[in-house]
Structure formats: structure tokens, C-alpha cells
Write a structure and sequence with these properties.
Helix 1 packs antiparallel against helix 2 and helix 4 runs antiparallel to helix 5. The strands form two sheets. Strands 3-2-1-4-5 form a five-stranded parallel β-sheet. Strands 6-7-8-10-9 form a five-stranded mixed β-barrel. Helix content is 58%, strand content 16%. With 360 residues, the chain is of the alpha/beta class. It folds into four domains: 54 residues, no CATH class; 69 residues; 135 residues, 3-Layer(aba) Sandwich (Rossmann fold), CATH 3.40.50; 69 residues, OB fold (Dihydrolipoamide Acetyltransferase, E2P), CATH 2.40.50. It starts with a helix and ends with a helix.
Length: 360
């Protein structure tokens, strides 16, 4: 039996009694039958209580819990401090304001409590970062082991997509990431759901994610923690991650473009693996020479396409005549697109090839 159903029954009884009582009083005024009016208004009250009680009790409580779950601990603490400061100011001004002539002396103290409480909460929430920074103490320098312990206290939330991608294992082994990789239980459940999918491709990706996760747990450089922490009132995994990141003040490690955009709009720091991969690709300038294997035709007539070791696409002008061959090319243009870096080049002439082979 749900809590909402119990409150419906309580509301039905309560409003039914109130309706019957009101019907009897109305019958006395109108000099009609008390029994008839009592039963009629009692039934109406019971029906109203059965329908409206959840909207007056359980539904507002659920909405309040959902809102509070989305708010970080720092914001809640700042709001509480602002409320206390507002109430203190209102209490200090209540006595002199109450000495004003009526009706101002009776009304203004109550209005002052509401206004000072509201402005106190808003000011403390808007300036919470500056307020909390006042309580921070600059500690003396620590040893390297203590500094490492502090760095490891930083949490980095992992998205399902970045676990399935697999590159996080290689990145973790390099030592560039500092902190603790935090994997919520709902992310692990989604990964397990993908690994058990009837679709062969999805099942293969999910199992690869499980293998990557096992490798991460064996990595001594970067600790991995699986937490049962959850966000109530939210079903979507991406939305849960964003809310959790705001509460923990932790960045999200992902390669999901949509999650990246949503998190940035809500002020959450994002570590995007795709952006990292694009940032560390080879930097080439027009006029530099490359040795490329032309593996396919391009979109335009006569073009050939090859790839560098880091996956960068090289579009070779007149490269169609050199399919499945390693050729020297000269970079003519480097284009940065949303999908990554693209290089345009032309086939080197005989003189340039001889110069490159001589090491000139």
C-alpha cells in the first residue's frame, strides 16, 4: 500500500467529516433536513478529499525533494546562512518598526521578515563562492605524499560512453588525469544492460566497456571507486550525471557531444576525450611533406584519401592515380572541422621526392 493511497484515505475521511459538519450547519441556517444536507456534503467532501489530498500533501513533498536533490550542498548551506542573516536583521528592526502608527506598526514587521529573508537567501546564494572562500585557510607547504593525497581527493565522474570507448584506459596509464575516477551505480547498471543487449554490436560494445573497467581497477596510478550514490526523481542517466556533478562539484569525463553541451549549459566542467584527441594530433603547416598511403577515392574527381597514424584524414589532390600506394605529399591546407582536423595536400613532384629521399 503506497503512501499516497494512505493519504488519500485520510483526506477522504477528513474532508468527508468537514463536509458533513458544514452540511449540518448549512441545514440549520436554511431550515432544511440536517440528515440530507449532512450526507450530501459529506459525500462531496469525501470525493474532494480523495482527489485533492495528494496535491496538498505527497505531490508537493516529492517536488520539493526533487528540487533539493538538484541543489548542491554549498548552495543549500549558503541559502541557510542567508536565511539566518535575514531573520536576524528583521528581528533587530522589528521593534522600532512596530512603534509606527497603525496599521503600519502591525503589518511592516511581518513584511520585513519576508523581505529580509528573501534578500538574505538570494545574496548569499549568488555570492556563495566568495563567502566560502573567506573561510579557507592557506596551509603551509606539504610533502609530496600529502599533496598526492589531496589531488586524489578530486572526483571525476565517468560517463557510460567514455567507458565503452576504451581510450580512457590508455589515458589513465599516462598519468595525465589526477584524482579518483567515480563510477555511479546507475552508470554501471546501464553498462551491464548494454552488455546483455540482444543486439550483437551493442553487446560487444558493452562487454568491451566491462573489460576497460576491469583494467582501470587494476591501474595503480588512478584509483577507481564505484559508488551507490543516486539522484532521486530522475530517470535519465545523463541528467543524473549532470545533477550529481553539480552536487559534488566534480567534472564529467565523456565523449558524448549532447551530454557535453547540456553539462556546459548548466555550468558543469566537462573533460571530453574527443577534444583531447584532437588537441594532441600532429600540427602540420602548409609546405610540409608527408608520406601517406592512399587507400580510397575522394569525393571530388581525381582525389585520393589517406590517413595518418593518429587517424587524421589527408585528402590528396590527383591522388586517385596512386591508390594503394605510399606517396610523398606536400601539405597545402589544414582545416579544423567539428569532426576533427583535415589535411589537404598534393602529390610531390619528382624534384621534391628526390630532395626528401636525400633527407634535404
Amino acid at each position: 500500500m503506497s503512501v499516497e493511497f494512505i493519504f488519500r484515505l485520510i483526506g477522504m475521511v477528513l474532508f468527508g467529516v468537514l463536509g458533513a459538519y458544514g452540511g449540518v450547519k448549512l441545514a440549520d441556517i436554511s431550515q432544511n433536513s440536517q440528515l440530507y444536507f449532512g450526507i450530501l456534503f459529506g459525500l462531496i467532501g469525501a470525493l474532494v478529499g480523495l482527489v485533492l489530498t495528494p496535491f496538498l500533501t505527497t505531490r508537493p513533498v516529492k517536488s520539493l525533494r526533487s528540487v533539493l536533490a538538484r541543489v548542491s550542498v554549498h548552495t543549500l548551506l549558503a541559502g541557510l546562512m542567508g536565511l539566518m542573516a535575514g531573520l536576524i536583521l528583521a528581528a533587530m528592526l522589528a521593534f522600532p518598526i512596530s512603534l509606527l502608527p497603525k496599521p503600519f506598526g502591525n503589518i511592516l514587521p511581518f513584511i520585513g521578515v519576508l523581505l529580509f529573508s528573501y534578500f538574505g537567501i538570494m545574496v548569499f546564494i549568488m555570492r556563495q563562492n566568495e563567502i566560502f572562500s573567506l573561510f579557507r585557510i592557506n596551509l603551509p607547504s606539504k610533502s609530496s605524499s600529502e599533496s598526492t593525497a589531496i589531488d586524489n581527493s578530486r572526483m571525476i565522474l565517468l560517463d557510460t560512453s567514455v567507458i565503452i570507448d576504451g581510450r580512457i584506459g590508455d589515458i589513465a596509464r599516462t598519468g595525465f588525469l589526477m584524482g579518483t575516477l567515480l563510477i555511479p551505480r546507475f552508470v554501471l547498471n546501464e553498462l551491464q544492460y548494454i552488455a546483455d543487449s540482444p543486439d550483437g554490436l551493442r553487446r560487444q560494445r558493452g562487454r568491451r566497456g566491462m573489460e576497460v573497467l576491469a583494467q582501470l581497477q587494476k591501474n595503480a596510478l588512478l584509483p577507481v571507486k564505484i559508488s551507490d550514490i543516486d539522484v532521486e526523481g530522475v530517470r535519465e542517466v545523463d541528467e543524473k550525471l549532470v545533477i550529481l556533478a553539480r552536487q559534488l562539484r566534480a567534472p564529467i569525463l565523456t565523449n558524448d557531444y549532447n551530454l557535453n553541451r547540456v553539462a556546459e549549459l548548466q555550468g558543469v566542467a566537462v573533460l571530453n576525450v574527443n577534444e583531447l584527441a584532437n588537441a594532441v594530433k600532429s600540427v602540420l603547416l602548409p609546405g610540409e611533406a608527408l608520406n601517406v598511403n592512399v587507400i580510397q577515392e575522394g569525393k571530388e574527381p581525381g582525389q585520393g584519401v589517406g590517413y595518418l597514424d593518429d587517424g587524421t584524414m589527408v585528402v590528396v589532390e590527383d591522388g586517385r592515380d596512386h591508390l594503394n600506394q605510399n606517396v610523398y605529399v606536400i601539405v597545402t591546407k589544414v582545416l579544423q572541422t567539428a569532426a576533427g582536423r583535415m589535411i589537404f595536400a598534393r602529390v610531390a613532384d619528382r624534384q621534391e621526392i628526390e630532395s626528401l629521399e636525400r633527407g634535404g
